[in-house]
Amino acid sequence: MSRPPVPPSNTSADGSPDSSPGGSGPQNGQEFPTGQLAGRPASVTVIALVVAAEATALLGAATWYGYELATGAPVLSFWGAVFTMALLLAFAAWLFAVGHFLFRGYRWTRAASLVAQLFVLTVGVPTLTGGLVWAGLAMLFPALLAIVLLFDKRVVAYASRTGGSPPAV
Known about the structure:
mainly alpha
């Protein structure tokens, strides 16, 4: 496994990264050579938990949907219902992956999280106005909180990791 590239100004005489107090190695709050910050902002953890909770809710809905199919609940199209359940499972798995990689600081997860929150808003607003107030609020508040936190400068700075290259932001 190779080490990440280090600019020549950050190396010692033997070519290894300089981590001395006068050097520019990673210290409190500074960036590591891979672009990761030393600490994870609490807002990243909150967003990752919101996304994981949404994924868990989708997994629960898929489980309930599968139970209803197995017990013989009437449906217009059996294979259409199976396809809907497969979509619920796939989207739950996708959201778990987004939450995991957001927690690790990958850049692409911010866009995926934002799109997921916008989908939750498009379901939450009609739910709220349709008379299911508590269910609508349970969807709207976490989604709005996650959207606001996604644009926090600490989240943007932390979630700027690409595959293995330095951050582009």
